[in-house]
Amino acid sequence: MTDYIGYEALTQAAMRGVVREALKRAKTNGGLPGDHHFYITFRTKAPGVRMADYLVERFPVDMTIVVQHQFWDLEVHDGHFEIILKFSGVPQHLFVPYAAITRFVDPSVNFGLTFESQDKDAAVIAPATALAETNDEAGEDAAPASDAGTVVNLDAFRRK
To answer: Hey, which bits of the chain come out as E strands?
Structure first.
């Protein structure tokens, strides 16, 4: 059966929206409330990722950052976030598109999301409203690139 609605892309956009909103709340509140903290894993060579070359060499596939106590200049946008973190005591600016994220975890509340790590995620960096506008512009006959379903495995984040 053909999925003309594009549930896979809508699901990915909604899940990335959770990450975006969690980061917005961290910025709005002047920091993370209570014991909340985030582990964000992203592909270092994904399109749009900007960071120091030595960090890409050190983490050639992916990197996990911790957003908790020591972070600066968090900026949250529709398609990406920017943050300054220290690596070996040296502040570094990171520019991370949501499409590059492969995992988001807040262990304080046992919450986690795992994203598809395929290149087609690049089309899912905008909010769902922008995604709908893009689909409208493509026309009614436009079909999604894949009919495969999405499976989100949360077992890795459950306490045992």
So the answer is: 38-43, 62-67, 72-76, 80-87, 90-97, 101-106, 111-114
Instruction: Determine contact, residues 30/84, Cβ cutoff 8 Å.
Output: no
Write down the pTM of the prediction: 0.71
CB-CB contact of 123 with 132 (8 Å): no
Cβ distance 3 to 147 under 8 Å?
yes
Q: Which residues pair with 39 in a beta bridge?
A: 66, 105
**What is the tens place of the pLDDT at every residue in 71-92?**
899 999 999 999 999 999 999 9
For 78, the 3-state DSSP assignment is: coil
Neighbours of 142 (CB within 10 A): 13
| 55 half-sphere exposure, CB direction, 13 A CA radius | 22
Structure tokens at 33: 């409330």
* Whether the Cβ atoms of residue 125 and residue 98 lie closer than 8 Å to each other: yes
Give CA–CA dist 133/118, Å, rounded.
23
